Amino acid sequence: MRAAAARLRWSGSGNGVCVPCLIPRLDGVTYADQWTAALGTGVQPELVTVTSFNEWHEGSMIEPPAVGADDGRGDAYADFGKLPPDGYLTLTRQWIEKFLAMTWPPVIRVRIQITTTSDWTTLHVISGGAWLRPELVSADPGLVNSNMENGDQLLLEQSLADAQAGKQVQMTWDVQFSGLDPAKKLVLEIDRGDIGFTQVTVFNYLGDTPVAVKAFRWGGVTSDRNPFNAEIPANSLLNPAP
């Protein structure tokens, strides 16, 4: 997904809600907690969606209730506790204003290329930053997988038969990094199968074209999995390449 989106959803105390799934509203505290989480990632979301307005069957409605009125099924509409009927609309307006007034840390575009003769390779961030908005630039045809897995690691996978035959495959991604500290290092972990090698090339992409700043080749085999930590000075990604 190119756009970073934050989603708000909770279950209230309305009719039709499975009691074991109930999350109390706490007079608006639950709603505030989810807005805080959505805006507290350190990365600017391109949009925030509130996935309920009149979802009475879920009990997650935020539209003003007609407190005490019959809902047509013999039950009366409940109130919002200490909040007035339009309390959630007021809270929503306040959070939108806060969202629009916030400032956000910069994000840095980086290109990552993975080349391998192994049957599988994964790459994820250990420390020094966080990546988001991954965009697949290219991938060789015939791959089993070339995707962002579980939202936090790149996965490149070819068939075992192709790996055993020594076939080399490649995929390239553009990602946005946040939280890079120029005085520290970005640490990535390369993990791969027991066959062949994997090379990860990291490109500075602050200019019009990407410039390779570091390449890591990993072909070792350990007793269990085969991880290898790749360390890149964050400063080499934060300043335009010469």
- The biggest beta sheet, please? 5 strands, antiparallel
Structural class label: alpha+beta
Cα end-to-end separation: 31 Å
> How many whole angstroms does the radius of gyration measure?
24 Å
Uncertain stretches of 5 or more adjacent residues? 1-17
Helix proportion range: 10-25%
Q: How many structurally independent domains?
A: 2
Mean pLDDT: 87
Strand content: 25-35%
Counting H and I runs of at least 4 residues, what is the number of helices? 4
- Spatial order of the strands forming the largest sheet: 5-8-3-10-11
Number of strands: 12
What would you call the shape? Answer: elongated
**H and E order:** EHEHEEEEEHEEEEEH
Write a concise synopsis of the structure shown.
The protein has 242 residues and is an alpha+beta fold.
What does this entry look like structurally?
- By secondary structure, the chain is an alpha+beta fold.
- The protein has two domains: 5-101, no CATH class; 108-238, no CATH class.
- Helix content is 14%, strand content 35%.
- The chain is elongated, with a radius of gyration of 24 Å.
- The relative contact order is 0.14.
Question: What is the strand and helix layout of this fold?
Answer:
Layout: E1 5-8, H1 29-39, E2 47-50, H2 87-101, E3 108-116, E4 120-127, E5 130-139, E6 145-149, E7 153-157, H3 160-164, E8 169-178, E9 185-192, E10 198-204, E11 211-218, E12 228-233, H4 235-238
Parallel strand pairs: 1-2
Antiparallel strand pairs: 3-8, 3-10, 4-7, 4-9, 5-8, 6-7, 9-12, 10-11
Helix pairs in contact: 1-2
